[in-house]
Amino acid sequence: MQKLNRKLMHITIGMVPLLFWPLFREFLKAPLYYVTAIALATSVLWRTSPIAIALICNLCAGDGVADIVGRRVGKEKLPYNPNKSYAGSIAMAVAGFLASVGCMHYFHTFGFIEESWRMTFGFLVVSVATALVESHPISTELDDNLTVPLVSFLVGSLIL
């Protein structure tokens, strides 16, 4: 069974991103940062680190939901960044937090991590921090696929 799981991972890790290549407008920048952050979190932090959970959940669920919600219902823009909305930033924090807590429960069922209110609070702090940095104009210049995982790692290292 373990060999089958390894082979399924082998197939999907390469093939799934390949399916999305036609949708990418830029060649390397954002997709490269995104994949590199997830690969580093996976290879360095693996299954027992709440930092990896926070990083991946805020980058994937948080940032993804922020863009969708922000474009659809984000009429009221942030005063410090007219390209971002209150709705998108709030959606990012909520989605990143809920995904992190959900993954905490999931990993707990396999015995990889211990659930706690302290960790839950830590996920909330990391999610709010990543939503703030994603809404900042610097994330447009540097790319939020770089700033969000970096802030997740730094804040997560301090609090988780």
UniProtKB/TrEMBL annotation:
Signal peptide: none annotated. The chain crosses the membrane at residues 7-24, 53-74, 86-107. Its main location: plastid. Keywords: Chloroplast, Kinase, Membrane, Plastid, Transferase, Transit peptide, Transmembrane, Transmembrane helix. The keyword Plastid applies. GO terms for cellular component: chloroplast membrane. InterPro entries: Phytol/farnesol_kinase. One of its GO terms (molecular function) is kinase activity. It is a multi-pass membrane protein. It is found in: Plastid, Chloroplast membrane. Belongs to the polyprenol kinase family. This is Phytol kinase.
